[in-house]
Amino acid sequence: MHNTTSDTPIYRNWVSLKLVIVPGVLALGTAVLTAFYSWIMIFPVIFLLMMLYFIYARHLFSPQGKDMQAELHSMLIEEIDWNGKGKVLDIGCGNGALAIRLAKKYPEAQITGIEFRKFSEALCKQNAEIEGVSERVSFKEGSIIDLPFEDDEFDLVVSTLTFHEVMELRDRRELMEEAFRVLRHGGVFVFQDLFLTKKMFGNLDPMLKKLSSWGAKSVEFINLGESERIPSILRTPFMVGTIGIIKGKV
């Protein structure tokens, strides 16, 4: 639920409450069991530390903390080399934060956000209206494995921390090939994801060569996991320690 009269946009925190609640419940449950099995004493401590870690991580991603969501969006936007005229696709738009920021940066662009998970289109539209860009931003739910757009439809395609969440594909690189399909010749792409997670994307060099074989040009990888702009406590393999940007043209 959200307040439709709010004058402040509402964006989902990337560190979900589930990551806090689950270890908290496990900490409580195992603590009770220690009354009967003293040998499991270590488990409540481990689960409690996990809960505290994710509470702090959630705080860092919120506007009240370091607002790392906005910071990661800024790191992506800074890598866009584009004249700002044309159509933009944001793959995995969530509550519209990145799409809206792009609309504010590029006043001559038309932005489309697509989300493959269940999301609130009404909330996205409300956020865009609050930010004053509702006439140039639209949102829809649909597949990102088979994007519901024509070939060569967009001038810029972006995505942030979305590809790794698509469990239907073993090889997440295929999502980038599909993104290239809807990108016109000479169009720009900037993708931000956990690209150094080998079980999802394989080794980096073969992945970049694969993108080139699909028509990508001037492909470049930027390792954000080493950036001091990201707090060291978040630069872990199970948070954003393997995050990077792949950018180029087609």
Numbering strands along the chain, what is their spatial order in the largest sheet? 3-2-1-4-5-7-6
Major beta sheet, specifics? 7 strands, mixed
* Rg on CA atoms, Å: 20 Å
CATH architecture label name of the largest domain: 3-Layer(aba) Sandwich
Fold and architecture overview:
The protein has eight helices and seven strands, in the order H-H-H-E-H-E-H-E-E-H-E-H-H-E-E. 35% of the residues lie in helices and 20% in strands. Helix 1 (18-33) runs antiparallel to helix 2. It has two domains: 18-61, no CATH class; 68-249, Rossmann fold (3-Layer(aba) Sandwich), CATH 3.40.50.150. The N and C termini lie far apart (41 Å). It is α/β, with parallel strands linked by helices. A seven-stranded mixed β-sheet has the order 3-2-1-4-5-7-6, with helices on both faces.
Write the layout of secondary structure elements.
Elements: H1 18-33, H2 42-61, H3 68-77, E1 86-91, H4 97-105, E2 109-115, H5 121-130, E3 137-141, E4 154-160, H6 173-181, E5 183-193, H7 198-201, H8 204-213, E6 217-223, E7 244-249
Parallel strand pairs: 1-2, 1-4, 2-3, 4-5
Antiparallel strand pairs: 5-7, 6-7
List keywords for this structure.
disordered N terminus, alpha/beta, 7-stranded mixed β-sheet, Rossmann fold, globular, single chain, 2 domains, 250 residues
Short description:
The protein is an alpha/beta fold. It has helices at residues 18-33, 42-61, 68-77, 97-105, 121-130, 173-181, 198-201, 204-213; strands at 86-91, 109-115, 137-141, 154-160, 183-193, 217-223, 244-249.
